[in-house]
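Query form — protein FG-GAP repeat

QUESTION: What is the three-dimensional structure of this chain?
INPUT:
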Amino acid sequence: MRARGLQIARRLRLRQSPRPARRAALTFVLAATFAGAALPLGAGTEATIVTSAEFAEPTLRYAHAVLGDDVEYGALILHRSNLKAGTALRSNAVLRREKITIRLPLTRVFEDLAPRLVDLDDDGAPEVMVVESDAQKGAQLSIYDASGTKIAATPHIGTRFRWLAPIGAADLDGDGHIEVAYVDRPHLAKTLRIWRFREGALEQVASTPGLTNHRIGEDFITSGIRNCGQGPEIVTANVNWSRIMVSTLEDDQIRTRDIGAFDPKTRLTAALACEVN
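ANSWER: The structure tokens for FG-GAP repeat are given below.
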């Protein structure tokens, strides 16, 4: 099964001045464009597929600045279609596209680089994975489906201004279920955590300390999931950024090995390309 790694994701630059979120309630705003008269996506038996996602409504209401500035996001936009990528429409079908906006309460923000599309239930249609932070309880990893519903999430870390850095998602142990991996508090706890998505929920499988993938103020995450022919492997740095570490999941246990020196110039490029083992 193909690994769904983040590799080294860089924070998108803002192109507009931040503005406060307009509403405190979690609401959904539909702005749909249809070819001819048609029912909204999801009506009847038609599938609804997320084709892309983006953050919106920049805000200064959560001044953590862990990603290099104090701007976070109050909304998540999902672009949806009734057609999966690479498939053909039936002769009598109508191609439809629309977008929905998920707007957070004023006590929460999306504290992240960009939304990630990952197929967690392996049905061919992606879910959306994001870091969502609460003003009092800190960050959690949240999963949204194509309807804009938050279907699963890890617990909040528990303290304001505590963050987690996502790594990616893959079937890490070959059991047929997708696992998601992140570093919990990459500047403090420096703990790799792996959660399994099963029956619509996330359950923690394993964790191990001594690993990190982010420094305070960086607008990118230094980690990823690779597959060099032996199954998915998580690639991170050690706690003092001197070594490249590779971790695997076996029998619900994390096994980590050192594969070489960490070079600040090339970072993990060679390791993620399977040039360093």
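ADDITIONAL NOTE: Confidence is low (pLDDT under 50) at residues 1-10, 13-39.
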